[in-house]
Specification:
Elements (H helix, E strand, L loop, with lengths): L1 E5 L5 H10 L9 H10 L2 E7 L2 E10 L7 H7 L6 E8 L8 H15 L4 E9 L3 H9 L3 E8 L4 E9 L1
Parallel strand pairs: 4-5
Antiparallel strand pairs: 1-2, 2-3, 3-4, 5-7, 6-7
Amino acid sequence: MEQIRTIVESDFPAILRLNEAEVEKTSAMDPDRLAWLLGMSAYGKVTTLDGQVAAFLIALREGTAYDSDNYLWFASRLPSFLYVDRIVVNARFSGRGVGSRLYDDLFAFARSQGVATLACEYNLDPPNPASRAFHDKFGFRELGTQRVAGGTKKVSLQVASA
């Protein structure tokens, strides 16, 4: 049985394993950083399947003390937004709609909070075509690009209407 619910501390080990498996597409995170992110987040949920964490998503509103270059890029351009810091789906559950259902829940949350704009980024270099296709499906469009991680990554900075 699938369930979408708020992240709790007992989810941290599974979230950190999932994040580490996709770290080149997200960014490194330890338990302290995860707790710090969740403390600032407006949305932090997992999808569980048969009691296992199948995916997680963390999103932040404008006006937080987040230090991400990508978050700061949006903060300098948008007065109000919900920023997807990361969404990671366990590869074992890929292709089963887990990420899409989390995004459906996120979009519903944004509307319930009166937030009209969702923001995110995905890698252009190294390329992440799966993320591009996923975000295209939800109506995201590019506002700009930038190099991050000391110039080792180029990201597409995307927005969508809630």
